[in-house]
């Protein structure tokens, strides 16, 4: 595609996905895809849960047109249909953890067996040579994909957060794809994600004239985007057409990984299941310190952007993996220490009320 045609095509994808949202929002009541306030959900009124469905269909239709039904893209869609269907069922009638994990594992098997996308190498993380997984490739790939899906799901707690984080991550993938000489095929698919996420954020992000979200992505949306991020984190970091090293994939999804690991470790420490719900995520902590939702999202997405940019620059400049990995661990430790301090002050403040 020449530059002008690309601009027109992706603008049409953006506008088309916005139109899909406008069609699905009034249908949400009939479809029973609405989020009802109550319990931990403090939003006002019923909010349509059609963002994920709109993003998927915008991505699906435009992707078939862009790739002319290429086998790679069709296999991606097969896996995504499994993920989206599971997410919709979860939005309609909350599924158990085992059911969700089984579906996510099934989609990962499609990705590995038919799509040929699997985690075979961890790269030269500690400076002693490439770490290959061998027979551990299958369980490690499943663990990583399921982990990424649920990390993004946990980030979907306030308006604009999961969408904003996903947008920054896909922009990071896109830049790496261009600099890595991947050509236009996968970078074109990545631009589709950027377009449909931007359309969703038009309805989900708070801003002037929109004091609250008009639509949520739901579990269908967070699982759709989480699986897609996992797919491209692995696909772009493995094999002969590698455009980034595995350690860079960590940086490009840094904040959701940091927050999920910290929260799960904290829950296990206090004898709770790591999969239970709670107000222990970074966005909850910031809100409980009196920071507005818009500012909290700006801070978290801004921090994520900084870490993604560092990872992308490190990849482009060729900073050794055995330096990038310890720096990533250091960043995680620093993040955990700061958030734990904020959390402890929040707890003390709450207990004194």
UniProtKB/TrEMBL annotation:
Any single GO CC term annotated in Swiss-Prot or TrEMBL for this entry: plasma membrane
Membrane disposition: Multi-pass membrane protein
Lineage, top ranks: Bacteria, Pseudomonadati, Pseudomonadota, Gammaproteobacteria, Oceanospirillales
Binding site for Mg(2+): 153, 219
Domain of life (superkingdom): Bacteria
Matching InterPro entries: Glycosyl_transferase_4, PNAcMuramoyl-5peptid_Trfase_CS
Annotated GO MF terms: metal ion binding; phosphotransferase activity, for other substituted phosphate groups
Chain coiled-coil ranges: none
Subcellular locations according to the entry: Cell membrane
Main location: membrane
Keywords: Cell membrane, Magnesium, Membrane, Metal-binding, Transferase, Transmembrane, Transmembrane helix
Gene Ontology BP, a term: cell wall macromolecule biosynthetic process
Cofactor (UniProt): Mg(2+)
TM stretches of this protein: none
CDD domains named in the record: GT_WecA_like
Stated name of the protein: UDP-N-acetylmuramyl pentapeptide phosphotransferase/UDP-N-acetylglucosamine-1-phosphate transferase
């Amino acid at each position: 595609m020449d530059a002008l045609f690309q601009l027109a095509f992706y603008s049409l994808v953006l506008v088309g996905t916005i139109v899909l949202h406008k069609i699905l929002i009034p249908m949400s009541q009939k479809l029973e895809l609405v989020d009802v306030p109550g319990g931990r959900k403090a939003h006002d009124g019923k909010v349509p849960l059609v963002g994920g469905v709109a993003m998927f269909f915008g991505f699906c239709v435009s992707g078939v047109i862009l790739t002319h039904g290429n086998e790679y893209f069709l296999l991606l869609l097969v896996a995504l249909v499994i993920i989206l269907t599971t997410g919709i069922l979860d939005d309609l009638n909350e599924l158990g953890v085992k059911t969700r994990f089984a579906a996510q594992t099934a989609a990962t098997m499609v990705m590995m067996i038919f799509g040929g996308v699997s985690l075979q190498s961890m790269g030269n993380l500690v400076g002693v040579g490439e770490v290959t997984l061998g027979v551990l490739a299958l369980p490690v790939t499943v663990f990583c994909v399921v982990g990424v899906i649920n990390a993004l799901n946990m980030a979907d707690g306030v308006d604009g957060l999961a969408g904003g984080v996903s947008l920054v991550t896909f922009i990071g993938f896109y830049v790496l794809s261009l600099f890595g000489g991947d050509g236009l095929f996968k970078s074109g698919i990545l631009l589709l994600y950027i377009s449909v996420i931007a359309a969703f954020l038009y309805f989900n992000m708070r801003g002037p004239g929109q004091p609250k979200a008009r639509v949520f992505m739901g579990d269908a949306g967070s699982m759709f985007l989480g699986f897609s991020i996992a797919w491209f984190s692995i696909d772009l970091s493995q094999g002969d057409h590698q455009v980034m090293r595995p350690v860079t994939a960590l940086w490009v999804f840094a904040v959701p990984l940091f927050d999920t690991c910290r929260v799960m470790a904290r829950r296990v420490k206090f004898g709770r299941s790591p999969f239970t719900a709670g107000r222990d995520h970074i966005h909850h902590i910031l809100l409980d310190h009196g920071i507005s939702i818009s500012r909290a999202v700006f801070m978290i997405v801004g921090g994520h952007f900084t870490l993604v940019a560092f990872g992308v620059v490190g990849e482009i400049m060729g900073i050794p993996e055995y330096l990038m990995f310890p720096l990533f661990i250091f960043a995680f430790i620093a993040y955990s220490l700061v958030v734990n301090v904020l959390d402890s002050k929040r707890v003390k403040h709450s207990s004194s009320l």
